[in-house]
Design goal:
It is a single chain. By secondary structure, this protein is α+β, with helices and mostly antiparallel strands. It is built from 6 helices and 8 strands, in the order ααββααββββαββα. The longest helix has 13 residues.
């Protein structure tokens, strides 16, 4: 059994002194009064006990409940466990989910084998590597598309529908204006020019 407290405070108490003085004298004569709580690493019990005297000592001397030895476990991702000796999470499920080393995987659906740029603990997600030039079905080229956006012919065809190259297009309203390739090929192209007709009030119509 351990009694945790401040012996000096107990002895200064007028009511507590008569009770604690003989108890502390007996414990002291038997070498049972210590300056802190003796702790031993559960995984390395042969190490010398460490006395913890103040709350910060737990964080400093027993950061993960163990000792200052580096955990030598190799995680399933191939990285070494980043924690100091830890008696808990021995199957390393939590440590695996907190691995902050650079990811060694390739993003899913990436046929170009671009390395993932995230941390090991994060999901790779779609490949964000910039690729190009990629020919589009409209005849233009994509020079700054992400790998995921042009990962297959179907994806390229879908990306072509967003082509931002500028082209001249004659709209149903009669205007011939510069617009995006995607707008010119849509089912209902939107003319960027002002109407220009005279409104009933006598002013020029500035609607599109």
């Amino acid at each position: 059994m351990f009694l945790i407290g401040n012996s000096a405070t107990l002895l200064r108490s007028r009511q507590g002194n008569p009770v604690w003085q003989p108890i502390l004298d007996e414990l002291s004569s038997a070498g049972r009064v210590m300056k802190g709580l003796p702790t031993t690493c559960q995984l390395h019990p042969n190490d010398e006990p460490v006395l913890l005297c103040v709350p910060d000592d737990f964080r400093h001397h027993r950061p993960n409940g163990g000792c200052h030895r580096q955990c030598a476990y190799r995680l399933s991702c191939g990285h070494a466990c980043p924690l100091k000796c830890h008696p808990t999470d021995r199957d390393h499920k939590i440590a695996q989910g907190n691995c902050c080393e650079p990811c060694k995987r390739f993003p899913p659906e990436c046929k170009r084998l671009h390395p993932c740029t995230k941390l090991c603990k994060d999901s790779c997600g779609p490949c964000k590597a910039i690729v190009g030039p990629v020919p589009l079905m409209c005849g233009h080229q994509a020079n700054t598309a992400t790998c995921h956006e042009v990962r297959s012919q179907a994806a390229i065809d879908q990306f072509s529908l967003k082509c931002s190259e500028r082209v001249m297009h004659k709209f149903n309203c009669g205007h011939e204006e510069s617009t995006t390739c995607a707008n010119s090929r849509s089912s209902d192209p939107k003319c960027p020019a002002s109407c220009g007709a005279i409104a009933a009030c006598g002013h020029l119509c500035d609607n599109r």
